[in-house]
Amino acid sequence: MSPQSLHLRLVRGRSDAGSPSAPIDPIAVLEVDHVLKLELCDALERLADGLPNETDTGLANAAVTVLRRGLPDHIELEERHLFPLLRRRIADDEIFRPVLEQLEYEHEHDDASAIEISEELERLAEVGQARNAEMLGYMLRGFFVTLRRHVYWENAMVLPLARRKLTENDLDELREAVVARSHRHAASRSTDAFIGIRPKTV
Length: 202
Ligand SMILES: [Fe+2]
Ligand SMILES: [Fe+2]
Prior knowledge:
Bound molecules: fe (ii) ion
Strand content: under 5%
Radius of gyration: 18 Å
Order of helices and strands: HHHHHH
Number of helices: 6
Shape: globular
Helix content: over 70%
Number of domains: 1
Largest sheet: none
CATH superfamily: nmb1532 protein domain like
């Protein structure tokens, strides 16, 4: 099953999503994205635990795909669509505005680290050995710990806020962005799924 069809199945399978022909719930799509990001964290933890002697090249390659494509696409969806829409609805909110700023700061850091880690994992998958196992382990652990915390924050604070504050027009705009992303993925046949190889309970 492709990641897109998985998204649709999960999103449309929600009890509040209505009939099968009901429009996609764009916030539920972000929730599914977060499940995938937590699976990425589990995969990176497994790779870190296997260093320096065990190398799961399939897992390393899958992680690279998500780091290079799935994660930046998710960040773009939040920064170009979700966060601006939310800002319009919480203009005077002194608690949430700094939260969004902090999350954007973390996106920047994640983007940069994802590139470095991808390069190291590509090498790991290709030659079966890390250039510097200790350094890679350190990088992986720093990354997945931070990304898990980021996702937990967004699940606890941002997505519930979006459910409360976004208007129907906002949701339409977000839905369009989600659908456009799905079309881009389908066109490039990219994959962003750890479904089926989830190593640990999220
Ligand atoms: Fe985020
Ligand atoms: Fe997110």
